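Notes to self after the call with IL:
- keep both proteins in one doc
- input above output, always
- annotate only the second one for now

Protein 1:
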Amino acid sequence: MSSETGKFSADVGADVIAEALESVEKRQQESSGSGEPGPAPADGVEPAAALQAQVDALEGRTRELSTRLDEERERTLRALADLDNARKRAQREREDVVRYGLERVLKDLLPVVDNLDRAVSLGERSGSWEGLGQGVKMTLKLLEDTLARHGLHAFTARGQPFDPHLHEAMGHEERTDVAPNTVSTEVLRGFTLNDRLVRPALVMVARPPQSTEAERAPEATAPVTDPAPASPTPPSPEEEQS
């Protein structure tokens, strides 16, 4: 038992002894039937035995409570230690996710880098770059397939009506072969990640040529004029003689 527990037991024992003595005196007064304390038994054997029994019982109870208190304290300390370890473990896992979360994606992109390295190395060794275009197309297809496996998909906007939610207009083009307000040129494709827009498509939007609009405007606004009156016909010679 710790020193604090022993001090606690001694304090409790003093209070209990006082209460026990008072209880013994009351019992003696009740048994004698008078208000004065009765004669104590010889050598105080009976009061001392009862008092010792109560002290022993209280000390046993105190030891029991002290043991339970120690167990509860130990259990609380273990729970706090487990909680602190769990917090530190969660912090480490969160840091690992931030630091290495893209490891799987980047690992899948390594074959794309390898193909580009091989194409450049082949061109440098042979001095011929004719096959580089085909190699770049194959590498681009591999890259798009790899990104698609991770939910990143490209979409095209060429020939579609302009949608401000999916397209970002870079300017206008005067076109007669494309309907107005339609994407005439796609500068950059757009991308979505699991149905969420990552980057809108950068596009040029078609509009009618200004010259055509200017030609149509005078025709629509030209005033309507009345025909000029016919000039009078001069009289014939017969009519003048008559």
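Protein 2 (the one to annotate):
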Amino acid sequence: MPRHQELPACYFTRQFDDFKTYEGGGKWQAVSQRPGPPWGRTTPKLNAMACFNDKGQGIGIFSPVANQHWNFGPVGNNVKAKPTDPHCVHMAPIAMVKLGPKSVLEYRYWIVVGDRDEVTRRFDELVKRYGDEKLKLTEGE
């Protein structure tokens, strides 16, 4: 039976709690979620999403193989948490995949770090070059 797979599951420090999906052409859509879990869900039009801190620095994920919603949201309320604290943020593109005991799942994703302009520029390049990539699922021996 097919199940949700996070491709990939990413956790970052808590101050990166300004979530946005990338719509293309320099346009972003803000999405919000109260601290969880449960996670929020969103479906980025271009399979590109980022979280930014209050200084404008961001971490973006481009996962062209996602074919479901993305999980996202903060954990805990301590925005000033240190990297070793349990407070964090989460982003995970989801694909529905039927895995068996010997399955081999191949896919690529990109993590982009920078300010909003840099993340925008890189997302535009990545979507143009890799936006049509698909999962490769084979059964191992």
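Annotation: The longest strand covers residues 88-97. Residues 3-139 form one domain.
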